[in-house]
Automatic annotation (TrEMBL):
It holds the Pfam family Pex2_Pex12. It is a multi-pass membrane protein. One of its GO terms (cellular component) is peroxisomal membrane. PROSITE patterns: ZF_RING_1, ZF_RING_2. It comes from the Eukaryota. Residues 278-320 form the RING-type domain. One of its GO terms (molecular function) is ubiquitin protein ligase activity. Pathway: Protein modification; protein ubiquitination. Belongs to the pex2/pex10/pex12 family. One of its GO terms (biological process) is protein import into peroxisome matrix. The chain crosses the membrane at residues 179-200. This is RING-type E3 ubiquitin transferase (cysteine targeting). Keywords: Membrane, Metal-binding, Peroxisome, Protein transport, Transferase, Transmembrane, Transmembrane helix, Transport, Ubl conjugation pathway, Zinc, Zinc-finger.
Length: 331
């Protein structure tokens, strides 16, 4: 029989492989984690997992307010909802365990690095109970990661709604708007420098952790890690396609196609000029606003996009594809 012959023929190669494996070092040498540093991939995966989890929870929370009659409350109290969610997650994870949910999934925990260096502790194998961050340090961490971003979002929203930057340059509001923008640029620059340093040294993945001297170490020396390769493949594929679609800006072409179809289907006597058509809903604008690129939107259409947390204060113009970050009343 063929399968019997194949089995017999495979015995010698299998025996050879077994002997070769027996001469290799113990597998523990391959699974033991580095003693003086946490692998960068673990730290970045923990950060990415935490961000994705928060994004999922925010989307679910905001989805509740998509019901008719609740949308007004969503945009009116969006910052408060985000702050409440961030505070609850922080209290249930970092405040109680000195590790975020993403860190816990990667077997990582924060320690007081200043105290560790003072005692000569360089190993990151496991957390020494005496090096757990104090409540005061965690409180500062909460202020910088939860409270300060909330206050900045509130001020930026107020600045956008009242258009502080267009006021008298000597006014307090105009100066405050300029200071906030300058501080954002400085913080972004320092964050980039910190990231480059992290890639070189594998220490302090965020600027806040560096400022507070909070370093990630392993909770235990060994841990089992399971990777769903199908999920990873789908995730990479989705990221690639989403980046590609964002690059070619499909929405702009769809918008152009919609306007072209409207031009063909609308009687010539009913055609209206661009200044009397909202680029988002393609209807006569309600409380017309002009974007910084010169195109017209309804007040709700443009403000809802500018104030949406996912848009980060700007979005691509649906007419020309330019970055929209300001809106002015149409005169």
């Amino acid at each position: 029989m063929t399968w019997v012959e194949d089995t017999a023929a495979a015995q010698f190669p299998l025996a050879t492989v077994v002997k070769q494996q027996g001469t290799l070092p113990s597998s523990n040498l391959f699974t033991t984690l580095p003693v003086n540093r946490v692998l960068r991939v673990f730290q970045l995966c923990a950060l990415q997992t935490q961000e994705e989890l928060v994004d999922i929870l925010r989307s679910s929370l905001f989805g509740i307010f998509e019901l008719e009659g609740l949308q007004t409350y969503r945009y009116a109290y969006q910052d408060e909802l985000m702050f409440l969610l961030d505070a609850v997650l922080y209290y249930g994870s970092t405040w109680k365990r000195a590790q975020s949910i993403g860190d816990r999934m990667q077997n990582l925990v924060l320690r007081d690095e200043a105290k560790a260096l003072a005692t000569g502790m360089t190993s990151v194998v496991r957390l020494d109970p005496t090096l757990v961050p104090t409540r005061g340090r965690l409180l500062l961490h909460a202020l910088l990661t939860v409270c300060v971003p909330y206050m900045i979002r509130k001020v930026q929203r107020k600045s956008l709604e009242e258009d502080w930057e267009r006021e008298n340059p000597r006014s307090l509001k105009a100066k405050l708007a300029k200071v906030i923008r300058l501080l954002s640029i400085i913080w972004s620059t320092l964050s980039i420098i910190n990231t480059l340093h992290f890639l070189a040294t594998a220490q302090y993945r965020t600027l806040v952790e560096r400022l507070l001297s909070l370093r990630l170490v392993y909770g235990t020396q060994k841990t089992r890690r399971f990777s769903n390769l199908m999920y990873l493949n789908q995730h990479v594929t989705w990221k690639t396609w989403s980046s590609f679609l964002a690059l070619i800006n499909v929405g702009r072409y769809i918008s152009r196609l919609t306007r072209s179809l409207q031009a063909f289907t609308t009687p010539s006597g009913n055609l209206v000029s661009n200044d009397t058509v909202c680029c988002a809903c393609h209807d006569r604008p309600t409380i017309a606003q002009r974007s910084n690129c010169g195109h017209v939107y309804c007040y709700y259409c443009i403000k809802s996009r500018l104030l949406d947390a996912k848009m980060a204060g700007s979005f691509r113009c649906l007419h020309c594809g330019s970055t929209v970050h300001q809106a002015f009343p149409l005169k």
